[in-house]
Amino acid sequence: FIVGLGLGDEKDITVRGLECVRSCSSLFLEYYTSVLGADKNRLEEFYGIPITVADRNLVELNAESIYKNAKTTNVGFLVVGDPLCATTHVDLMLRARNEE
């Protein structure tokens, strides 16, 4: 799942987004294109799942490590605001879809 978190804090996520997040066994937080009003610890406490912060290098150069387990378990990629605004996020989605 690629989930938009809203622009404020951990409670700005949609109900559907929260359901997706809580179904995941691993979460990655893209935290370099925008800033959320809540840190990683607050997100983990609210969502109940450990989160890996995904910096630019991880997302752009090692994206496979984000989606490699998505065939067997739910993986979430959390983005502040609109999750498909950045071309990097669209690229991540397309690469995951094309994975065999």
Give the topology.
Blueprint: E1 2-4, H1 15-22, E2 26-30, H2 40-47, E3 51-54, H3 56-61, H4 64-67, E4 75-79, H5 87-98
Parallel strand pairs: 1-4, 2-3, 2-4
Strand portion: 15-25%
Provide the low-confidence segments as ranges.
Answer: none
Oligomer: single chain
- Please report the total strand number as a whole number: 4
The N- to C-terminal Cα distance equals: 17 Å
Helix content: 25-40%
List SSEs in N-to-C order.
EHEHEHHEH
Inertia-based shape: globular
Tell me the structural class.
Answer: alpha/beta
In DSSP terms (H or I, runs of 4 or more residues), the helix count works out at 5
User: Average pLDDT, to the nearest integer?
Assistant: 89
**What is the radius of gyration?**
12 Å
Spatially, the strands of the biggest sheet line up as 1-4-2-3
Biggest sheet record: 4 strands, parallel
Structure in a nutshell:
By secondary structure, this protein is α/β, with parallel strands linked by helices.
Structure notes:
It is a single chain. The chain has helices at residues 15-22, 40-47, 56-61, 64-67, 87-98, and strands at 2-4, 26-30, 51-54, 75-79. It is of the alpha/beta class and 100 residues long. The protein has a four-stranded parallel sheet with strand order 1-4-2-3. Helix 2 links the parallel strand 2 (26-30) and strand 3 (51-54). The longest helix is centred in the last third of the chain and has 12 residues, at 87-98.
